[in-house]
Every structure is written in C-alpha cells, then in structure tokens.
Please model this.
Amino acid sequence: MSATFDVIINEMVNGAITTIFNLLKVLIPLMIIVEILMVYKIIEKVATKLEGFGKIMGMSKNAVFPLLVAVFMGVTYGAGTIIEINKRTPLSRKDMALVAVFMYLCHGIIETGFLFYVAGANVLVVTLGRLFFALIVTMIAARLPYFKNMEN
Amino acid sequence: MNIFITALKDGTIKGLKTGLMLLKIMLPVYFVVVIIKYSPIMPWLQNFFEPGMGLFRLPGNAIVPIITGVFTDEYGVIAAMRSFDFSMAQITTIAMITLTVHSLPVESAISKKIGLPPVKIALFRIALAIFIGLLVGWLGGIFK
Model:
C-alpha cells in the first residue's frame, strides 16, 4: 500500500511542476502578444476581417479572437484571453455561450492533432473533422431559441 | 516604442497573474483526479461501461483510455492506449470521443471561473461525444 502511496505523491508532485511550467511558459508570451495586439488595435482589425465567420456562428466580432486562441492553443489559454477581454469590453452572455459550445468541442487542435497523429489516429479526422463538427454544432446552436433568447 | 515596452511589461504581469489564478483552480482539482485515477472508482466505471463499447464499433477494453481521458487529459488517453492494440479506425474513434470529452474536472473548474455553467457544459460534451463516437465509429466501419 505504501508503494501505491508513493506513486500517487510522486505523480502529484511531478504533474504539478509540469503543469506550472507548461502553463506559464505559454501564458506569459500569450498575454504579451494579446497586450501588443490590443494596444496597436490589431485584434480589432483581425476581428473585423473574421466578422463574417463569427456571424454565421451568431457571434459578435469581439468573441472571435478568444475563440481562435482556444481552438488553436487550448481551453486554458482561451479562458485566460476571455478573462482579459472581459475586463475591457465584456462579451455578451450569448457570445460567451456560443464560444463555449465551439471551444469545448474543439480546442488545442495543433497539440492534440499532433499527439493523436503520432498515436495512430487519422489526422484529418482529428483536426479538420473536429473543426467542421464544432462549426456545424455552433451554427445550429446559434439558431436555437435557447441561445437566441440570451440577447434580451 | 514606449507603448511597446509598457505592453511587454503589462503582458508579463498579466500572464503571471492569470497563470497563478488558473493554477489555484487547476492544481487542487488535479490532485483529486490523481487520487481518483488510483482509486477503485476507475475499475468500477470501466466494468460498468464496457458492454456499451460495441455501439461505437470498439472492443470492450477501449473503455480504459476513454474513462482515463474523461478524468485526466489527452496524454492520459495516449498512455492508456499504449497497453492495447487498436486499429487506426478504432484509435480515430477513441480520439474523437476523448477529444470532445476530456479533463472534465479541471476544465469544468475553469469554465466556472469564466462564468459558464460547468454541469451544463459537461453534460453537453458527454452527449456530443457519444454522438460523434457513434458517427465516427459508423464511418470507420464503412470505409475500412
């Protein structure tokens, strides 16, 4: 039993240290990039370009950027970006809900796509398939009364 | 140039602050997850759901990476898959299910932090994971 206990403590300590370093390693550069993109108003420009894309999913242009971060990098980083954006121009409830639908179905596609490709999965299905699936589900969700009514 | 340096500084501080805030949520949940991973809950859940794997055209032991993934993360899935010999179609199905629903404890804690309902999101992900598992399992069966 003490052996198992050792294994558990070991995994906790190792996992915690890895999590802390992996998170900060990505989050600090990400927040610097977000900050630079914000002060130079680049986010606004990119978001305006992708507005049409957001529109078919029922989102305002504000919501597109955190969604992109989440989809390419992961939920944790998407959430970090949402927290930062909410401090300046809060996202509407509907935007949050629709971003959540997309983001929780499909996130971190670069990392996980690579991971599962190496593990022997069909790489097109686990990346493009997943993006397409999340897009369809979000488009449907945006048209449901449950999400539509959030605007009021 | 001044704006740029301020942005660098602010970004670093925000990265640290956001990181610490997220870690405060993630680490305790992670510790509980590690305990669950080694507790009798895991084999019990696996036995319970094993007969259902046929629906996804998966062998019964595919439940091991799936249940592991629900509690831990994608790396847990990969690690759990190594001990079995799955085909490419089966790995793809397992991947699609676990990529849709994984790290439920940690990611639910994060969703709560940004003001999203964690239980609703968890149920939504489980439902969609079952749906996509059926779809991909069925497609994999056709194209093989």
Q: What stands out?
A: Chain A has a mean pLDDT of 88.
